[in-house]
Amino acid sequence: MSISFKLRLAHASLFCCFSCCTGPQEPPVPNVSVPSQATNEPAPVAAAPMTDPKPAPSPTPAANYNQLTAAEARVILGKGTERAFTGELTDNEVEGTYICRQCNTPLYSSKDKFHSRCGWPSFDDEIEGRVERVPDADGMRVEILCANCKGHLGHVFEGEEGMTAKKTRHCVNSISMRFIKKGDPLPAPIVLKKDAKK
Fold first, then answer.
1. How confident is the model at residue 61 (pLDDT cuts 50, 70, 90)?
2. CA–CA gap between residue 141 and residue 46 (Å, rounded)
3. Is the pLDDT of residue 16 over 50?
């Protein structure tokens, strides 16, 4: 593996963990201090919160899919990202299946989940045929979608050293999935007629 490739891979991984997977977020408001008496400079003004340049997608997905909240729709339909280390499934270690929040398609098994310390659930494999890979709009990364409803899941990175033997990391938003504990019945996937394979 060339040094150039390793550098590009490292850059892409960092870009994921600090850009793609954080998405547009509000920055912390700086502490407003008292004006300096020595310089008579005014106190710094708190920065305005960042806003997503794209309009928020409708929280209602295509007819007959599961109803989404505004936060879920921002990620699943609008290709946004939840904040790192805030997802309900990041540290989940229970045996079971991770399914698409929008259409119930089984996506990942708990046996393929691992702790990558990136702040989002990480898997080194998917359930065969359930996750689609497409080039990301940024031209650097590979986006992952639910193969059934095309809902945004996150990004996949390959060739990463020091993670698992498969050297693959699916970096997935918790909010894009639901978890079904082993032994509990899986809901039937919702396949719309226009999405059904002919």
1. low
2. 33
3. no
